[in-house]
Structure formats: C-alpha cells, structure tokens
Amino acid sequence: MISLQRVSHFYSGPCGQKILALEDVNLNIPRGSLTAIVGPNNSGKSTLGQIMVGLLSPSSGQVLIEGLDLAHWDHNLLTRTIGLIFSNPEDQIVFPIVEDDLAFSLESLAMDTLQIEKKVADILKFLDMEEYRHCSIHQLSGGQKQKLAIAAMVIRGLRYLVLDEPISHLDAKGREEVLTLIKSLHQAGGTIIYLAQRFEELVMSDLVVALVSGRVVWQGSFWELLERPEDMAQWGIEVPPIVRLVKILQDKGLAVAHPIYTVDHLVAALEKLKP
Ligand SMILES: Nc1ncnc2c1ncn2[C@@H]1O[C@H](COP(=O)(O)OP(=O)(O)O)[C@@H](O)[C@H]1O
Ligand SMILES: [Mg+2]
Description:
This protein is α/β, with parallel strands linked by helices. 36% of the residues lie in helices and 23% in strands.
C-alpha cells in the first residue's frame, strides 16, 4: 500500500513566488490495484508521481510505502521497489542496443551473466519482442520503445510502477500496445499508478482519482465515473460523446444500463430494451 497523508508541494517561481502544485492530498493506493490519477495539464500529476517515487520531497506531509515513511527508506531498496516511467520513451533509454539496455537495468542486482541473459530473454518473450534482441533501439517504434522502458523497470522486480502519461507521445498502435502491456502487468499482480489525461486511459483502472489544481476533487470506480460526465468536463477531462449521450438518455428515462462507453456497448444496451 502507498499512503499519502496531507501531502502539499510548492515550487518557487523565478521571482521567489510560491507556486502551489499539490495541496493537502490524502490518498491510499492498495497493493495490486491499478489506480488512475486523472487531471488536466498543470493539475499536479507529475509532481505527485515524483513525490511517490522519492524523486521529490513534499513541502509538507508524508508518503508511506508499506507503512514506512519514504524519508526513511534505503535508497537502493526503494529503487528496487518503485519506479517512474515518463511520457517520452527517448528519455529513458540508456544503451543503443535492446538487450544491453535491459541488461543494464539488472547490473546493480548482483546477478551473474547467465542469470542476466535468462531474465533478458524471458522479458523479451513476455513483450513479444524476441526478434528485436540485438536490434538498435532507434529502429523500434515509439510503442516498442515505451514497452522496453517499462520492461527495464519491471525486470528489476519492482512491486509498484508509476506511469506519467505513458502513451501521450505514441500513435494509435503504440498506445494500444502499451495499454495492453500495462493491463498484463496489473493482471500479473503489479501495483500500477497511472497518471492520465485522457478518458481511454481510465477504462482499465480499479480506482480513479480526479486531481484539479493540486487537489483531489473526487475518487471512485470507473463505473461511477461514467455517471458523471458533467463533472468530468468540469475537471478538464474530454468526455466521449457516447458517455454524454447515455447520460442524456438515462435522464430522459431510458433504462440503458452501464457500462457503456463505446458505440457497440450502446447498441447492445438498446437491443436489450427491445420488447
Ligand atoms: N520545476 C518546476 N518549477 C516551478 N513550477 C513547477 C515545476 N514543475 C511544475 N511546476 C508547476 O506546478 C504545477 C503542477 O505541475 P505538474 O505537476 O507538472 O502538473 P501536470 O503533470 O498535471 O501537468 C503547475 O502549475 C506547474 O507549472
Ligand atoms: Mg505532467
């Protein structure tokens, strides 16, 4: 469990002015969950992500991972427990060749060459990227690069993964590949904290937290979120027209039942209403 208790953070601006990034954030993220923290630009998501992994100390408040205050965690142990993935996969690649980049991630873990080779082979198989083992990273697509960056974290045996808008630089195929990988990591028992800006990124989450101007304004399940398109729009999240349409139909008394967020869902729900 990751627990944030009364976390606030200020940056200092160029003339020494206080810039409020987070204000009194209280949050409990259960082990094994996939939590999406959603908010528009400048709502404080990246600040929150950096605070959760210990890259930034909050101005006030506490972050506890498995009951222990982050300030008291051993740095090496922390980097093997929780990691942060950025939006741009280019920022996270260390070596030009796929297998070298993965092997580098394991270097500090006291493994012998054979163990490292086996781990690298296993993870490439899991990613469905075995044939890219000796390939230059520059030849990979954006989605493959991001999958590799995530794998370089996961291969270290992390239990918690924070992803900061990990699909925002990718094309549609890359977005789908990376979201599929994240779902399978979650199914394999990983705890995922997903910092999101788009509706499509929320679909797979167990818990959605809405962050606006550094404050948590709402938390609940994805299904509960579907009932609140007006709130979503107010929080700065782009709401798919189908979700707004369903709310209008429901308000007019048509008994279409959730979950509906695609045309196919709506067609199926309408067909159920046929006499
Ligand atoms: N290094 C920084 N120095 C000064 N202000 C910052 C810095 N990083 C972020 N901010 C400010 O903090 C607020 C929250 O930013 P951020 O955490 O990046 O939000 P998000 O990731 O949701 O876009 C914004 O007002 C932003 O301008
Ligand atoms: Mg950000």
